[in-house]
Amino acid sequence: MTGYGKAVAELPNKKITVEIKSLNSKQFDLFTRLPSTYREKEIALRNSLARCLVRGKVDLSMNVEVIAKDVTSKIDHNVLSQYHREISGLSSELNIPQPQEWFSVLLRLPDVMKQEQEELSDEEWNLIEQAVNSAVDDTIAFRRQEGEMLAQVLTTKINNIRSLLEAVEPFEEERIEKVKCRIREGLNSLEGIDYDKNRFEQEMIYYIEKLDVNEEKSRLAHHLDYFLTTLQEKEPQGKKLGFIAQEIGREINTLGSKSNQSGMQRIVVQMKDELEQMKEQILNVL
C-alpha cells in the first residue's frame, strides 16, 4: 500500500501542486490539506480516491502558488490582532523582549495576508481533477512496483517454509523409533510385571498415530500452494493472504506440538521465523 504521486496543474494566474502519499492501513483512511477554495470538492475527491486506491492511509495535499502580478491581498485584522496579543502575553510571561519591528514579524505569520476569494470555475476544477488523476496513476504505479518486489519476497519465504517442511521427513522415522524404544525400555525396567502384549501393541499403535504428522504436512503444503496462487491474482488480496498465513501458522504450531524431537523442533522454529517475516510484509499488501 506504500505509494507516492505528484502532479501539477498550471493556470494563467496560479500553479497547483497535487501530492498523494499512501501508507499501509487496514481500511481506507484519507487526510486532506486543501485550500479553502477547493473544500467544496472534498467529498468528490474522497469518493474518487477510495475507488482507485481501495485501502491505505492516504495523505492528499494541494499547494497553490500564485504567479499573477496583479493579485490583490488584504490583511486579516482579526488574525493580526490575535497574533499581537499572544506574542505580547508570551513576552511578559517568559520575560522575552518584544519585537522591534512588529509589522515585519506579524505580516509573515500564517493567514495574516488573505487573497481575495475567487469562485471555482469549471475550467479550473477540470485541470485540478486531471492533476489529481495523474497523481493517483503515479501512486498506483509506485504501489505496483513495490508490490512486485514484495511478491518476490513472499514467494521466497513460502519456498523456504516448503524446503523446511521437506527437511522434516528424515526425522520422522527416527523419532518414532526412539519413542518405541523408550516405551519398551521403560516397560522392561518394571521387573516382575506381566502384561498383555496384544493390548500393548494396540496402545503403542494408538500412541504413535497421535504423533503422526502426515496430515499436518499435507495441509501445510496445500496452504503454501494456495498462498502462491492467491498472490498471482490481479484483484486486491491482502486480507485473504493474511487469513492464509494464519492457517499456515496453525499447521506449523500443530507440527511443533507433535514433533517430540529436537531436530524437528528446530525446523519448526525456523518455519515460525519465516512466517513472522511474511506477516510483517503482508501488512503492506493491498
TrEMBL record:
Record keywords, A-Z: Endonuclease, Hydrolase, Nuclease
GO molecular function, one term: hydrolase activity
Cross-referenced Pfam families: YicC-like_C, YicC-like_N
The keyword Nuclease is assigned to this record: yes
Endoribonuclease YicC-like C-terminal domain boundaries: 170-285
Source organism superkingdom: Bacteria
Domain (Endoribonuclease YicC-like N-terminal): residue spans on this chain: 1-151
Required cofactor names: a divalent metal cation
UniProt key word Cell membrane: no
Family: Belongs to the YicC/YloC family.
PANTHER family on file: UPF0701 PROTEIN YICC
Protein name, entry field: YicC family protein
Organism taxonomic ancestry: Bacteria, Pseudomonadati, Bacteroidota, Bacteroidia, Bacteroidales
